[in-house]
Specification:
The protein is mostly helical and about 190 residues long. Helix content is about 70%, strand content about 0%. The two termini are about 30 Å apart. The mean pLDDT is about 90.
Amino acid sequence: VISCGLTGVFVNVPGVNLRQFWLNASMAAQAARGLARLAGGDGEAAYLAGLLHSSGHLILCQAFPNQLQQALASAESRQGQARVEVERAACGIGHPEVGAAWLDGLSFPLMVIEAVALYLDPLAAEPGALAPLLNVATQMAASVEVGDSLEAALQKIDAALLQAAGIDAQQLPVAFAPHYEQLFQVGGLP
């Protein structure tokens, strides 16, 4: 229901390929759900946080269409922290803060709001928070987008982050393998 509502709210966003945006959000959401279940957490809250983690970017693109589109066109990377730096330079604020404020205004669960706010600074989150897990999920989605194997994707993730997310690093390669394969299917990748 939320997915349908969001695609209805964000019909035309200047400078954003919405199909690619929602594909990335869907992969992050599915990765977050799978990781949360492996960690014994709330899979549905994790899914929701994954789906909404970059929603603030859409709001910024609508509020500052000229400034942000121009700034992003010249940026080397448009994901994660690199995107936030471009957003802050062009708009004075980044998508995690905007997304968290929007979700707070819509009375989303605090767990989801905090995860969206801190997913790019996950070790600043309180112990047991969803932000570290969401960060891992977004990294997994990014690895799928570039065609990394699960082994290559896991090598990019800091062990302290996995620990903060409550994920057993020893079990992850085997336990998450089916989820990782599903992400490739979601992304339409071989």
